[in-house]
Amino acid sequence: MSKPLRVAMIGCGFMGRAHSNAYCQVNHFFQREHKPVLKVAVARPEEKDKLEKFAAAWGYESIELDWRKAVTRSDVDLVDVCVPNNMHHDVVIAAAEAGKMIVCEKPLAMNLAEAKAMVAAVEKAGVPNMVSFNYRRVPAIALAKQLVDEGRIGRPFHYWATYNQDYTISADVPQGGMALWRLDVKVAGSGVTGDLLAHSIDTAEWINGPIARVTAVTETFVKERKHAETGKVEPVGIDDACLFLAVFANGSMGTFVSTRYARGRKNYNTFELNGELGAVHFNLENPHLLEFFRYADPKTGQKIEDHLTGWQTIHVTNFEHPYMKNWWVPGCTIGYEHTFINGLADFLASLEGGPKFQPDFRSAMRTQAVCDAVLESAKKRQWVEIPANP
């Protein structure tokens, strides 16, 4: 017998759609006891028309125009936070105090201080929680993690990460409002650091362990933009581009680069890890592929003498690959939306006696600590240490 999991969706934008699709689809592909029920969708009063269409499209039973009412409803078990960053803290604290399970979009918070308060709230309440760093659930990235854990890379030396887009190059693009709140520092907290590099940092620490210290530089190319809500030209407070060097706790070195000014790049998210025994490379623009270089046998450390030694491209669609046994036949790929379904399936499994879900709020707080350290370093122009336990 299935267990209903009654969901309150806070937000009806792009991420609200991605998460709603996961709730609708997860039981079709994964055997789980819990069955999500789309109980209530929430948005601001000025978005009522959009909210009604959203709720009807996805099958929510009701709507609310006040998130505070939604998170305290007795017919809600889980609160899903898909609103701009400046609202995460208040919604999460209220949901935790109401004893609700919580799913939160990334980044966890505006800054580390908020993140700490949110972690304290969910841990005090003892409620299950997850942060939606969905790229961990790309099968090729999960396979890269598996290869590292199996010792196939050996001692790591270099980690390289890039996350580039191009949608804010024009000076005519406004800041603020529901469409472009990511350009408003008062709402987003930061620019590419919290929005894009947060993904890169989470993936890097998951695969290669914690980052110990960073040194960074940021740039804002367009210094002023018209604000979509006030119509006034205002200073731009977010970082359009960021690059930083990192030293990991395991002694390896990292280079991270992100910009929204990479003409031609829409969602160019890559990483490469070079080690003593091998290497892995991933590019989100080809999400079903993982490149692997095998140099030496992980069991003996001996160089593999083979005239075919070189980079191999693995088509990550076989049943033995992470998550793929739940989807189609080998050779048939899955897409962006499936990463959220895979993540939700893992979260439901954790409620049913499976492994503890990661990343939870405490794990995401580490990512927030690194983001804060990057921004601090760029401001102070010096190396910044990151505590093992922020």
Task: Report on this structure.
With 390 residues, this protein is α/β, with parallel strands linked by helices. The chain contains ten helices and 17 strands. The chain has helices at 14-29, 48-58, 67-71, 85-97, 112-125, 139-149, 185-188, 192-208, 336-351, 361-380, and strands spanning 3-10, 34-42, 62-64, 78-81, 101-104, 129-131, 156-164, 211-219, 224-226, 233-235, 241-248, 253-259, 268-275, 278-283, 289-294, 311-315, 384-385. The model has no long low-confidence stretch (mean pLDDT 97). It has two domains: 3-134, Rossmann fold (3-Layer(aba) Sandwich), CATH 3.40.50; 136-335 and 345-384, 2-Layer Sandwich (Dihydrodipicolinate Reductase, domain 2), CATH 3.30.360. The chain has a nine-stranded mixed beta sheet with strand order 16-15-14-13-7-12-11-8-17. Strands 3-2-1-4-5-6 form a six-stranded parallel beta sheet, with helices on both faces.
